Amino acid sequence: MTEASWQPTAAGVMRLPSGWLVRGRGLRHPLPDGPEPQFGVYLVGSAPKPVTWESRWVRWRDFWLPADRTDFVGILREVLDRAGTQRVELACGGGFGRTGTALSCLAVLDGVPPAEAVAYVRAHYSHRAVETPWQRRFVTRFDQAAPHRR
Known about the structure:
alpha/beta, Protein-Tyrosine Phosphatase, Chain A, 5 strands
């Protein structure tokens, strides 16, 4: 773990199979105690509030799927590239549906089989992760949208 990593036991932090740590959270809740992210990805329907760290916005309405799936895959690849050296977070309104879906897709990019990714995130992040049947289906088919793993 580098100095720029999250603490493994901090709220919302999930360990990927690679050992890298990412944080998921809900934007409707206060920023958790501890260090700020160095990079954030915000999964919301309209432009998120400005933050002091570098960030990306994925247009994604509550309970749905990302509006631009190609852009989403590229941003997740950036998250994976940065997670080894920076504190990276993914967040939506509540921190479960869109965030859980994105974390599941990130787990697929890091080597978890698509059929097991939702269960992985529910076990390592939140049992409430990934809220709708179409979000679960999106994850199970994600490796078709992003066939080139690290």
